[in-house]
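Structure ticket #2291
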Amino acid sequence: MVTLLAVGDIHLGRRPTRLPDLLGEHGVAAVELTPAAAWRATVAEAVRLKVDAVCLAGDVVDTADDRFEAYGHLEAGVRRLVEAGIQVVGVAGNHDVEALPRLARRIDGFRLVGEGGRWEVVEIAGRDGRIELLGWSFPGRRVESSPLEGGLGPRPDITPRIGLLHCDVDGHSPYAPVPRAALEAAPVDGWLLGHIHRPDPLSGSHPIGYLGSLVGLDPGEPGPHGPWRVAVEEGRVEATHLPLAPLRWEDEAVEVEAIRGDGDGLEEAVGEAAVAALERVHHRIAVAATPRAAPRVVGCRLRLTGRSPAHAALVAVAAGEAIGRTSLVRGDTVYFVERVVDDALPAVDLEALARGDDPPGLLARHLLALEGGENEATPLLTRARAALEAVAARPWPGLDPADDADPRPLLRRVGIRLLEQLLSQREAR
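Resolution: structure written out below.
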């Protein structure tokens, strides 16, 4: 058997975003949460597990300008791995097409595979056998065609073979688009992929999928992150995710029906609901994580759901500074509220309002269309996307990057706020 530690996109040189100042009050320095810190933890785990090789699936360095900073981190890790008898191989992605080849030439013990956009096979010698690693590196920042175009040719023998590639599976981008069918038909026993930051399950005896980023760089990369232990034996591949990332992002729903009160009482109730949500996230992570793999920091995006007669006041409190500074410490892990997203509704009957011919009635019909099927929602979404594209290049209050693909959440939040204002004005009259 040969064991690998497979590492997805590291992006050395980048800093995680959306980290609050209050982490310093808990004794957490931002440097503890960087890709460089995650890389050091990965190196230590590789040595502890006594793997045969560490494989890097591209975008090791964030940009060419980061190569000088990345050199120290990458070189120190490679040196420790080589001293422990562990091979280090990797491929270049679209982010480090210039930086990684330069670093590879300067770092003893690091083998860049498939430089210049040519397929290359290297041997990984294990304590109990050997495997072949087939790799391809980006030759330029943009690659419009599939690296698998034309096939890979026949496999010379029955030696287990693993593919290492940075690509866009079933995509249409200029970043090595590869049909999944081509990966499945290739003469390899599994594919370890880089580029997409959300990890795939990598299940089955011949897994094909993304390793994910080594650490979630922003709230758009939620869930566990870290390297994968990959065991290869007689053509069978078993991949196990190791959630070693020091920083983790989570989403958690907060039901608003039970949040009652006014004035300071409402702020107290919202604060208690936020703390309870952080506690739920902690218990969910604690069930799955070993003490060694517990994250140092967890940022939680809380989503208000359900209906409340005090919806507008509740949302105003939830957006306040006091709730934004809510935190919880369990063991060595600090949990904090990254943001509160309003997906709740006022306690109004949209169907009844929609029967009216006044502005609230028109808005209620739009909101119901958003919740309906494609036939009802498509015309509204088409107009919304066109309007959003016109302002996408400028800062725009309330426009979250996570909403870019589907504008429904943004339209829903804005629509509900406007509806509440219209109803309040109508009641005042």
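Closing remark: Residues 247-428 form one domain.
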